[in-house]
Amino acid sequence: MTRQDQPTSKLTALEVACRRHGLPLTVQRRVILHALASRDDHPSADEVLAHVRRRLPEVSRTTVYRVLDTLVKLGLAVRICSPGAGVRFDPRTDRHHHLVCVRCARVIDFEAPALNALPLPEARPRAFTIHDYSIHFRGLCADCAKRADGRDKGPLRRPARAPGGVR
Ligand SMILES: [Zn+2]
Ligand SMILES: [Zn+2]
């Protein structure tokens, strides 16, 4: 019988899964798990590193990256990637979808039961086994939409900071 309904269930589930896979719960690993499980904003590896360093200032980037890699390999976290948002980590491994803000690169979980049982295409690419899918919807988050609304109502503008200098 499981007790998945506890508030810390995500962290507990990750800890149990690590033990099941024979990964000792070192202090570092535990803090990294906590950093990942406590966020639903799909942090990048560097954001996880910054989060972990608030508790363990001396932790190395290599350690954090390696632990994140291991979690992904064991299926305890998912690496998600969306154009413009870079590579992020998601502690949720059940099927769900994402809203990606094209302006601030925020990635928000999106539940859509109707999209969870899409028929997989008949003609699949050869030599490719589909494991799962996740749909990314691109658009503007509420904050960015509000900001855009205050200035102009035109179509998407280019980011204010142009790389390589201003004209
Ligand atoms: Zn935004
Ligand atoms: Zn997610």
**N- and C-termini, Cα separation:** 64 Å
CATH superfamily of the largest domain: Winged helix-like DNA-binding domain superfamily/Winged helix DNA-binding domain
**In what range is the share of β-strand residues?**
5-15%
Mean pLDDT rating:
84
- Major beta sheet summary: 3 strands, mixed
CATH topology of the largest domain: Arc Repressor Mutant, subunit A
Strand order of the largest sheet: 4-3-5
Q: Give the ligands present.
A: zinc ion
Would you state the CATH class of the largest domain? Mainly Alpha
User: Could you tell me the number of beta strands?
Assistant: 5
Number of helical runs? 5
Helix content: 25-40%
Please give the structural blueprint:
Layout: H1 9-20, H2 27-37, H3 45-55, H4 61-73, E1 78-82, E2 86-90, E3 97-101, E4 107-110, E5 136-139, H5 142-151
Parallel strand pairs: 3-5
Antiparallel strand pairs: 1-2, 3-4
Helix pairs in contact: 1-2, 2-3, 3-4
Bound molecules: zinc ion (ZN) (2 copies).
One zinc ion (ZN) binds next to loops.
